[in-house]
Amino acid sequence: MAADVSLADAELIQRSRRDPAAFAALFDRHAPALHRYVTRRLGDSLADDVVAETFLTAFRRRARYDVSHPEARPWLYGIAANLIGRHRRKEQRFFQALARTGVDEVAESYADRVEARVSASAAQRDLAGALAVLSPEDREVLLMIAWADLSYEEVALALGIPIGTVRSRLHRARKKTRAALGGVDPSALVVDAEADHG
């Protein structure tokens, strides 16, 4: 029984309970974006492992998936967030190194834009420094919204927290990073940096 790629995530998960191979369509659908997100968070060296472990965990837990949620993206990002949590010190060191050097190892692998990088480098250093000092919880919310493009509702679902908590953490993260960046909206810099390197 082959998986129909037109099925909603919940239907694929439900089908995979009978036909484990159907889960591959869920991987094909979400792994590339999740990999980009994890790479931005932890660097390329850990991204493959974290994404693989995310989908392995999801596969093992598929029988408990709430099929009333047709979209599995928040569920997958929630699993990834827990795994990223194991690597928080590495993430913080990554942002601190980026703040010191201005060299984003992830972006450097796509480097063709020397001119654009000259001005973006300073902003990246400032942004990395601001991200490094955020609490892990505030950073998680900010980056899920800015880098993974999840909605407030999806972040709440992914992290298992009320939407009001998402809003307060995002507000706090934006306020702290805006202050660290001299009044510049951190979401704009995070999105701009992604556009420059995507």
From TrEMBL:
<keyword id="KW-0805">Transcription regulation</keyword>
<keyword id="KW-0731">Sigma factor</keyword>
<dbReference type="InterPro" id="IPR013249">
    <property type="entry name" value="RNA_pol_sigma70_r4_t2"/>
</dbReference>
<comment type="similarity">
    <text>Belongs to the sigma-70 factor family. ECF subfamily.</text>
</comment>
<dbReference type="GO" id="GO:0016987">
    <property type="term" value="F:sigma factor activity"/>
</dbReference>
<dbReference type="InterPro" id="IPR014284">
    <property type="entry name" value="RNA_pol_sigma-70_dom"/>
</dbReference>
<dbReference type="InterPro" id="IPR036388">
    <property type="entry name" value="WH-like_DNA-bd_sf"/>
</dbReference>
<dbReference type="Pfam" id="PF04542">
    <property type="entry name" value="Sigma70_r2"/>
</dbReference>
<keyword id="KW-0804">Transcription</keyword>
<dbReference type="GO" id="GO:0006352">
    <property type="term" value="P:DNA-templated transcription initiation"/>
</dbReference>
<dbReference type="InterPro" id="IPR039425">
    <property type="entry name" value="RNA_pol_sigma-70-like"/>
</dbReference>
<dbReference type="InterPro" id="IPR007627">
    <property type="entry name" value="RNA_pol_sigma70_r2"/>
</dbReference>
<dbReference type="Pfam" id="PF08281">
    <property type="entry name" value="Sigma70_r4_2"/>
</dbReference>
<dbReference type="InterPro" id="IPR013325">
    <property type="entry name" value="RNA_pol_sigma_r2"/>
</dbReference>
<protein>
    <submittedName>
        <fullName>RNA polymerase sigma-70 factor (ECF subfamily)</fullName>
    </submittedName>
</protein>
<feature type="domain" description="RNA polymerase sigma-70 region 2">
    <location>
        <begin position="26"/>
        <end position="93"/>
    </location>
</feature>
<feature type="domain" description="RNA polymerase sigma factor 70 region 4 type 2">
    <location>
        <begin position="126"/>
        <end position="176"/>
    </location>
</feature>
<dbReference type="GO" id="GO:0003677">
    <property type="term" value="F:DNA binding"/>
</dbReference>
<dbReference type="InterPro" id="IPR013324">
    <property type="entry name" value="RNA_pol_sigma_r3/r4-like"/>
</dbReference>
